[in-house]
Write a structure and sequence with these properties.
- This protein is elongated.
- The strands form four sheets. Strands 1-5-12-13-14 form a five-stranded mixed β-sheet, sandwiched between helices.
- Helix 3 packs across helix 6, helix 6 crosses helix 9 and helix 9 crosses helix 11.
- It contains twelve helices and 14 strands.
- By secondary structure, it is of the alpha+beta class.
- The protein is 37% helix and 23% strand.
Length: 309
């Protein structure tokens, strides 16, 4: 186990009591120009398994990139002092077990505890360290993206190789979402990058242990920090109507089972070739609906054409 492996805040996507319900349906647009996409369809339709990707591989250079503001060293010093007074001495101020800190710096656990000092020097050390930790949010968080609508001409153009792909219509089981803690979160669109400071990031880094110290950590604030980091994008992306499931896994990008999502229909892009349509119907019609899309006769709209499967 490495130091980096321990820097994993718990998932912040769990819905609090009274939160808005999950959408009943979401949509995942995919190109269909490789056998790889057929494998993705098979896993989704037959196994309820979906491919999660690292946020650093997404197509937005601002992904999970807030406006970072360094806190004043004296404020960081005070936070470290309060942390040591209220939280077990078995953790550093990022919520990492002391044995992991000792491994990182190749020192004994006794010496590792002494590294956590409520001094200006210690504060400056953490001001630099937290910047490195923030990079792990982007590299370690894995996301599954979907949209709230199937009929966006732009989504078909941008994510299905100019309408040469498919769209999976996914049914959302809210009860299972709550049960397994993998919840859809709507993206927030804004003209300003979210602002986050050193102390707020330090608190968020301690999320794995936060529930054990409710008098020191405010969970609502930590959830809000997580959302701002991973579900905020520019207004330019609003057309996507994106919803995300974000997880952390030591296994990295790949297929993960999501019991709360099931493929209800496969929608076929208007430019998809005949052979691909035939192959999809042959392989998947016994498992879900397969529907063609056509152009509306008089409007700039896409129309679904249900088929007898």
């Amino acid at each position: 186990m490495t130091y980096k492996d321990e820097l994993r805040p718990i998932d912040f996507q769990q819905k609090e009591p009274g939160a808005a319900p999950f959408p009943e349906l979401v949509y995942r647009f995919r190109p269909l120009n490789t056998e790889y996409t057929f494998e993705e369809l098979r896993r989704a339709v037959k196994d309820n398994a979906f491919r999660f990707s690292s946020l650093e591989s997404f197509n937005d250079p601002f992904e999970s990139s807030p406006r970072y503001v360094g806190s004043k060293p004296k404020d960081v010093k005070e936070y470290i002092l309060n942390f040591k007074s209220n939280v077990s001495g078995q953790f550093d101020v990022f919520g990492n077990p002391i044995e992991i800190v000792a491994q990182k710096y190749d020192v004994t656990e006794r010496k590792a505890k002494k590294l956590i000092q409520p001094t200006i020097l210690g504060a400056n050390k953490y001001l630099e360290e937290i910047k490195k930790w923030h990079n792990y949010i982007v590299t370690d968080n894995l996301a599954l993206s979907a949209s709230i609508s199937w009929d966006s001409i732009l989504m078909w153009s941008h994510y299905t190789n100019s309408h040469n792909g498919i769209c999976m219509e996914l049914e959302v089981d809210s009860d299972l979402m709550h049960m397994f803690g993998r919840s859809l979160e709507p993206m927030q669109y804004t003209d300003e990058r979210p602002h986050i400071d050193t102390i707020e990031l330090m608190k968020y880094a301690s999320m794995p242990i936060a529930t054990d110290y409710p008098d020191f950590f405010n969970m609502e604030e930590l959830f809000a920090t997580g959302r701002r980091l991973s579900t905020t994008k520019s207004e330019a992306w609003r057309y996507e109507g994106e919803e995300r499931i974000i997880i952390k896994s030591p296994d990295g990008p790949g297929y993960y089972e999501v019991k709360s999502l099931s493929v209800k229909s496969i929608l076929l892009g208007v430019n998809l070739d005949t052979d691909a349509r035939k192959k999809i119907r042959q392989e998947f019609s016994d498992f879900c609906k397969v529907e063609d899309l056509v152009l509306h006769a008089s409007k700039y709209e896409l129309v679904r054409v249900p088929n007898e499967n």
